[in-house]
Design goal:
Elements (H helix, E strand, L loop, with lengths): L1 E3 L8 E6 L5 E6 L12 H4 L1 H5 L9 E4 L2 E4 L2 H19 L4 E5 L7 H14 L4 E3 L6 H11 L7 E2 L6 E5 L3 H4 L9 H10 L3 E5 L5 H4 L3 E3 L6 H14 L9 E2 L1 H8 L4 H8 L3 H13 L4 E4 L1 H4 L4 H14 L9 E2 L38 H6 L8 E5 L3 H4 L3 H8 L4 E5 L12 E3 L21 E3 L15 H12 L7 H17 L10 H7 L5 H12 L23 H6 L4 E4 L5 H4 L7 E2 L3 H14 L6 E4 L26 E3 L1 H6 L5 E5 L4 E8 L7 E3 L12 H5 L26 E7 L3
Parallel strand pairs: 6-7, 6-15, 9-10, 9-13, 10-11, 12-20, 15-16, 16-17, 21-25, 22-24
Antiparallel strand pairs: 1-2, 2-3, 4-5, 4-17, 8-14, 18-19, 21-26, 22-25, 23-24, 23-26
Helix pairs in contact: 3-18, 4-18, 5-14, 9-11, 9-12, 9-14, 11-12, 19-21
Amino acid sequence: MLRTCPLCEAVCGLQLELDEQDRVVAARGDRDDPFSKGFICPKGASLGKLDEDPDLLRAPMIREGDSWREVGWDEAFEAVAAGLGGVFERHGREAVALYAGNPTAHTVAGGLYLPLLLRSLGTRNFFSASTADQMPKHVSAGFMFGDPLSIPVPDLDRTDYLLMLGANPLESNGSLCTAPDFPGRMKAIRERGGKVVVVDPRRTRTADRADEHLFIRPGTDPFLLFGIVHVLLAEDLTNITVPVGGLDELRAVATLFPPEVAASQTGVPAETITRIAREVAGAKTAAVYARIGTCTAEFGTLAQWLVDVINVLTGNVDRPGGVMFATPAIGRMRRSRPYRTGRWSSRVRGLPEANGELPVATLADEITTPGEGQVRAVVTVAGNPVLSAPSGDRIGRALSEVEFMVSVDRYLNETTRHANVVLPPPTTLQSPHYDFALLGFAVRNYARYSPPALPLEDGRPSEAEIMARLAMIALGQTGDPALADELVIGTTLQKAVATSGSPVEGRDVAELRAELRGNTGAELRLDMMLRLGPYGEWNGGTLSNGTAPQAPRLSLQTLLDNPHGIDLGPLQPQLEERLSTESRQIELAPQQLVDDVARLREYIARTQPEILLIGRRQLRSNNSWMHNVSTLVGGSNTCTLHIHPDDVDRLGLSDHAVVKSAAGEVIVPLEPTDAIMPGVVSLPHGWGHAKSTQAVASANAGVNANELTDDSRIDVLSGNAVFNGVPVTVSPATA
């Protein structure tokens, strides 16, 4: 049996062996997958264990006081209709908030039905894991390229020089850079004579495999990047090959950050910064890539901006071997309006929206602060913000106060324990899989679809049907959830036939609808999107850049006929198609970003704390939701505080320590290691299961690092939470 692994961003192909009871007895990498080529990590190898977890919810649950009752689906949906309807009637639609967790990016239901649910709820109170992870990259891409989803990724298979900051893909398997077997791709760079440089406060597994590792003080990445930009401009090392605006403005602001200033803030010597700038400029091809360590910091958007400024200045944007844009099989329309943020703001703190989202750092404020528009009901989908968001305990207390809460989730966890109704989706093997979001950031164009491997039990709705039913309840409607799919299909086709230049311009909608194939509404929609896409059956077989695709024209049937996946070829230059700025140029100095440099300058005058806390990723974990799989817990996948031995001695520590911040404190076991720089400590993300009903997770509870993070600290431009560079004190733990 063939499947795509849905447990991280690497989209690896799996080959599963099932026994007579439909249990997975073996999971191997699919060697015939043209993208992952047999690569597998411990999470994928444990896919069957996840589906067999005895703590997985198999039926809807309704909370009555402190106890839970298993109910049928009709009763559960009736309770949701009564609960949400009551809040709508008493307080209006803005009294509802929707939170979407990270797994929604890995499911068909999340990709297709989350937008429908949000529109149906009719609220602007939308929060997601994006503002605890990646929003700075979307905002910087929006201002530079005109579209927050136009994110160039490193062309790993052809680059000669890779500079990575705050990224640990040997643990994360890549992030906003879909690249199965990242270790093999890094090795290939070095074997062909290239160089890999990693900048990180920890000597991570990725840094160990690189040619060079540079320690850097947490949160100071923009200084290092500005130092590189300064050298490139001062020494005339630029090779700009794309249309740009704002070069003079960029030059003026870069003069404020010579390598000496950058060195004083980062701890990276000035001569090293100068050398790295010259190496990036002198490499035949080069790519600069930065991820979560730089996003989840005080100046996250500035860091992401400067990454692509360097890529532009050195001639490495939209160039093979540099950073390029993927062409996923599900195409996207060019933005017709200029990108902007702050179209509305949060009620309590006045924080601006970005990409239609409000910062999760203000979710608790919206629930606990009285007044018009106070959030009285919460809908969560595959999310656990009590563990994954800043000031997590405060969110937990806030959720206990809402009038109604419904969660679409596999587990009763630290967040869903506050819900009135929990609606569990089917298991992974009972669900279809297509990576709507992740293939937009792939380092090679590729498509693969996995239909459900096992049937649903009688009366068991799919996750898509659960989401569609919720959307209909929000609209006050009853009936077949398939009506929602038909509405989306009809609207999409009508727009497509009326759009100039569309592959189906002028065609008959009914005729197009009759051509669609699929066993469910979700499959019909996927078939439509594939046919309309750049490689689609309705698209004439020619890409927007004039080249012919290296595969059959796509439809759902094409993917079903190719269960190992289809290689759609290497990334191709397509900047002209992706640019959506008003000027039709890459904006090197967007005013919003230039204005924020003043805040970076103010940082220089601050008295710096003695110890800073950072997070860390773990290979056998994915945020908070995989700590109940016994085969993945233990070994290196434990909740300990990484600390340098010199700090252990200096602070008089033994085996445990009290870590305290402005937001809270935890007691945690120590793991001394010289892989972390002195003055920095690290806790992994997603632990703290002391209140969990999950047997394995509660037995290996760990501590919640987000009891230490402060929801008042955000990256101003994106609203992203600050998890790295948190000032803390560390002291001996008494008995």
